[in-house]
Amino acid sequence: MRAARLPTTKDLDEIATYPIEESKTMTESISNPLPAAQPPSVAMPLVRVRLPSRNRPKGRQPDAAALAEVRALIGVVPYPRDLLIEYLHQINDRYRALFERHLVALAHEMRLPVAEVFEVASFYHHFEVLPDDAQAKALTVRVCDGLSCRMAGAKDLQQHLSVSLGGRDVKLITTPCVGRCEQAPVAVVHQQPVAQATPEAVVSKVNQALALMDKAQAAPENESIELAKNHQSEAVDALTPSTPASNASYFYTSNQPVALDTPAQAAIKNGVRLDLPGAITGAAQAQTTTPEFIDLASYRAEGGYALAIAVAAGKTSAESVLTALENAGLRGLGGAGFPVGRKWRMVRSQPAPRLMAVNIDEGEPGTFKDRTYLERDPHRFLEGLLVAAQVVGVDTCYIYLRDEYHGCRALLQQQIAALQANPPCPLPRLELRRGAGAYICGEESAMVESLEGKRGEPRLRPPYIAELGLFGRPTLEHNFETLFWVRDIVQRGADWFASFGRHGRHGLRSFSVSGRVREPGVKLAPAGITVRELIDEFCGGMAPGHTLYAYLPGGASGGIFPASLADVPLDFDTLQPHGGFIGSAAVMVMSQHDKARDAALAMMQFFAHESCGQCTPCRVGTAKAAALMAAPNWDIATLTDLAETMAQASICGLGQAAPNPLLSVLRYFPQEFTGGL
Ligand SMILES: Cc1cc2nc3c(=O)[nH]c(=O)nc-3n(C[C@H](O)[C@H](O)[C@H](O)COP(=O)(O)O)c2cc1C
Ligand code: SF4
Ligand code: FES
């Protein structure tokens, strides 16, 4: 008897064309049933019927329970592709992790390849993908490991917590700067920040949360699932920052924006300390996680939205707004400092439809100005956004908010709803989106990718996003604070803004000051102020027992300067000759108790952690440099070589700026790595 012939590829191809009932995809069988399949017209050998077919669904199929759970969270079709990250958040919030079964179900619902959903989910630090049989911890506690928190004792805090939370149902992790450096050290229990955190305060918050969760689990058996879920949400709510009460008079004394009128204006020009916001001192900024804010009614009562109304009605022309921004010399305040008026003209000259993307990712270590303004005066920003939308001709605005800013999200949701319910003028479509813990998504083209629901990998340019941005449309992208100043500049006049400044510079800058100063916080100060002036006049001097040793003028990317450069004017373009830049004006102050090489190592580790991995000079360079910098003796030749390669050959600003702290140490702190330690 002849042995049975093994099927060839050709056989398999033939078989694949047979419409076999069991080969229907899950998609078809659940939501798009096809007519019953016809049996093969010719008799088939049994072996053929059993063979895999092309029509058979590939990969893992969703199970009914997971599908039901996902649908219960995100509703039913349609599921726009760009909302993938929002859906992942919903699942992650509910189940404390992303279980594989849910990702498979989500992929099915969104008609996406499972691999695509996995690759997006695994890109973002705030998502943890777990196998189905794993157990997610009840609670996550994050201890900030950023430079200012380290200076304030974050390592000790972390060690204490690892002991006191050991054995509890808690995941304790360190995390890069969470944008609250004036409150250092900071811990975040689920979504609730703990300012000036002590082990006791964190443990108390954890106990509170776990007790509520126990209550949820101990719900009587006859208690309905809904009721049990309520207990669960109660526990989550207790850890989710609520929207603070509003009180218009708290932020700006005498209801005047930023209190820059006389005598405060005179004060700032004369170099007298001016706290921002008016009534909140540096010490208060450091303590409060839910400051009072100006709500819509109060904002309108003090003349708010008059500019937006005037522009919408054509009483204030687009040209006059553009001219005011240009004459004021307003530059983008997210880091790159591109002239604002010029950007608006570029985008408005592009064909419609145009889009806007607002960057509130605020991931640059040491930066917290956007949060500080947002949580106190959200409508000043929203008015700037409306004016920009009208002048540039934008009908949809996406607001990309850092995930760590849970309180701001609640506030923005509430205030946008209030604005939509009572619009002062026609509004563009507003979409609030949530980042997911990836620093690179602050880079504008990576943010655009993330807004499209993808991995936040920067795009190669050109084309620039002003021409080809979000969803392929011309996109106006701005930092939060840039829009925050639009109203005041147009209403008060370009000269008002440009009249501030020191040492030949013009304008106002919001410095996020943290580290070894007496009163850390956001300091609204004249452009061109020196760090010595900033510390002495705005921060109450150095913290007791500390003298200035070094400072970072522009977050992680802007280099590290020695005290001997304390009299350099801080502004765009003034620091480049010294190997640094102001970036987002995040000033971290170090004292004789700190080492520049430790700071540089922390920054390089941060960049290695945050590199999107797309290009080799950055992916390999940051990791390798961090390893070399951790050694007691630095291999200076290799480090210099790596620094040059990263700076010259990386695709985006992360890799290009990553060597800056390292190069600063090599240039200004030789005593720290040439046997002086
Ligand atoms: C790695 C990296 C991270 C960035 N992070 C932010 C950020 O968190 N917020 C921000 O506004 N800009 C950030 N930027 C700058 C943006 O790419 C962009 O220049 C800016 O948002 C433009 O807005 P502006 O003109 O109003 O400053 C980052 C840039 C890079 C290279
Ligand atoms: S430089 Fe780094 S972060 Fe930027 S694209 Fe390359 S790998 Fe990604
Ligand atoms: S919040 Fe910890 S360093 Fe910024």
Write up what this structure looks like.
The chain has 677 residues and is of the alpha/beta class. It folds into 6 domains: 9-50, no CATH class; 64-130, Arc Repressor Mutant, subunit A, CATH 1.10.10; 139-238, Glutaredoxin, CATH 3.40.30.10; 255-491, 3-Layer(aba) Sandwich (Rossmann fold), CATH 3.40.50; 500-589, Roll (Ubiquitin-like (UB roll)); 597-672, de novo design (two linked rop proteins), CATH 1.20.1440. 42% of the residues lie in helices and 11% in strands. It has 31 helices and 15 strands. Strands 12-11-15-13-14 form a 5-stranded mixed sheet, sandwiched between helices. Strands 4-3-5-6 form a 4-stranded mixed sheet, with helices on one face. A hairpin with a 2-residue loop joins strand 5 (187-189) and strand 6 (192-194). The chain is globular and about 70 Å long. It starts with 8 loop residues before the first helix and ends in a 9-residue tail after the last helix. 48% of the residues are buried. The model is unreliable at 1-51, 221-233 and 242-282 (pLDDT under 50). Residues 332-336, 338, 359, 361-364, 440, 442-444, 477-479, 482, 652-654 line the site of flavin mononucleotide (FMN). Flavin mononucleotide is lined by residues 332-336, 338, 359, 361-364, 440, 442-444, 477-479, 482, 652-654.
Characteristics of this structure?
Glutaredoxin, binds FE2/S2 (inorganic) cluster, single chain, alpha/beta, 31 helices, binds iron/sulfur cluster, Arc Repressor Mutant, subunit A, four-stranded mixed β-sheet, 42% helix, binds flavin mononucleotide
